[in-house]
Amino acid sequence: MSVIVQNCRTCGGQWFPARLLCPRCGGAELAPRSVERGVVEQLTHLGDVVIASVACDPEPLLVARLHGTVAVGDVVELTDRPDLSDRPVAFVPPSGRPREEQS
């Protein structure tokens, strides 16, 4: 399981969702990178739904829907496919590709 983020080949920054240019350096050489896990930094409970800020190493910070019992500081697997199994996972919907500017 993993989530695809963008990696800037110029400055090394990593971004989610997808962008046309790197927000840090303005570089256009962006490549996909798979991120498999992250650390839960914050939790928000909305009824039965748990939303979390999940920090990847070294970046980005993702907002994800958690499945399973998870606490702040726990390492969770990241997925872009809903997984309703008993193990703790963080679901991050795929960002798709950025839209090209229309003329």
| Total DSSP helices | 0
Structural class: mainly beta
Oligomer: single chain
Order of helices and strands: EEEEEEEE
Please provide a written account of the structure.
The protein has 103 residues and is an all-beta fold. It is 0% helix and 45% strand. The chain has no helices and 8 strands. The chain has a 5-stranded mixed barrel. A hairpin with a 5-residue loop joins strand 1 (3-8) and strand 2. It is elongated. The chain starts with a strand and ends in a 12-residue tail after the last strand. The model is unreliable at 98-103 (pLDDT under 50).
Secondary structure topology:
Layout: E1 3-8, E2 14-15, E3 30-35, E4 37-46, E5 49-55, E6 61-67, E7 75-79, E8 89-91
Keywords:
0% helix, mainly beta, 3-stranded antiparallel beta sheet, 8 strands, 5-stranded mixed beta barrel, 103 residues, disordered C terminus
Briefly, what is this?
By secondary structure, the protein is an all-beta fold. It has strands spanning 3-8, 14-15, 30-35, 37-46, 49-55, 61-67, 75-79, 89-91. The N and C termini lie far apart (38 Å).
